[in-house]
Amino acid sequence: MSAFASDPGLDEVRDAAGHGTEVDVAVHLHDGTVRLSILWTQEILLSADDADQVAQALQRAAEQARSITAARRSDRPTEA
User: Fold this and answer.
1) Phi, psi dihedrals of residue 49, rounded to the nearest 5°
2) Please, which domain of life does this record's source organism belong to (predicted)?
C-alpha cells in the first residue's frame, strides 16, 4: 500500500496531444511531501482547463502537506 494519496480530481486529465499521458498530484501521508508525476513520458501538454485543474490540485496538496507537517511538529515533545 502506498503512503501517497493521489488527488482524484485529476482522474480525467490527459495530454492535449492525445498521447495518453497522465498527470498525478499526491501527498505523502506520513511526511507531508507533495509528489507531482507525469506518467508515461517526460512532459505533458495541457489544455487551459486541465492546467487549472493541476494547479488547483497542487494547491490542495500543499494545504494538506502543511496540515500533516504541523501535526507532526505538535506531536514532538518540547525541549525544556
Assistant:
1) -65, -40
2) Bacteria
